[in-house]
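ok here's Cysteine synthase:
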Amino acid sequence: MTHSYPTLEDAVGQTPLVALQRIDAARNAQRGNVILAKLEGNNPAGSVKDRPALSMIRRAEERGEIKPGDTLIEATSGNTGIALAMAAAIKGYRMLLIMPEDLSVERAQTMKAFGAELILTPKSGGMEYARDLADQMVAQGKGRVLDQFANPDNPRIHYETTGPELWAQTGGRITHFVSAMGTTGTITGVSRFLKEKNPAIQIVGAQPDEGSRIPGIRKWPQEYLPKIYDPSRVDQVVNVSQDEAEEMARRLAREEGIFGGISAAGALWVALEVSKTVENATIVFVVCDRGDRYLSTGVFPA
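and the structure:
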């Protein structure tokens, strides 16, 4: 009898949850609060987006909408593109990724390493232009868009995996969940699960201040608001500035040994703001990806 070994797909999820030990430690201890980091950079392609990327492909296959050999198209600012490039490599798809030209060189190189083809769009058009171009290419019959912004299989995987992991890892003690808001899949799916377990759990979204550019966090114009986003699932939205997020990214690495991305640091900044207003709370924030994805941006001093 042959032994069945796990595949790379089986390595997605079940990421560690670790307690912060130094940042604002005295004040948190005084108030009886604990802040926990969900290390999604431990996924095989390095981010929380590994979960929805595989989920969207797997579910589309189950419904007979796509099959190996097909061309998939996606507009992405980075992590979803990397995760989809990995998933396409695992499952045998041609992957076309459309992204604004100003995104970090590490992310573009990583997508290409997985075999994806890149189409760069003007920086001035932002993600909105990239999303419009993806829709045009589908209309021209050039492939199929999974559409992370409107695909219910995005939040669904967080309802099925991320939420239950957090509940189990905190022994049901979680009181606040803080997440950066980009496609909003993570916050929407996790909120649905946690609120079913305990409606009193507070769901807090991190959004960038006006004029701030924080990779992975967006404040969308109304007409581009992700269709998967359900505002009723988010109790509070807190704005964080680019400077605050970047400084917190450096502190997170130096003081906690957690080398996370800038959106993760933005979520931590918001978690610390929440911590100032509550007592005896278990506050979880998502470390969406790893800091080495941002080295060329100059956030981390050379």
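+1. The first strand starts at residue 17 and ends at 19.
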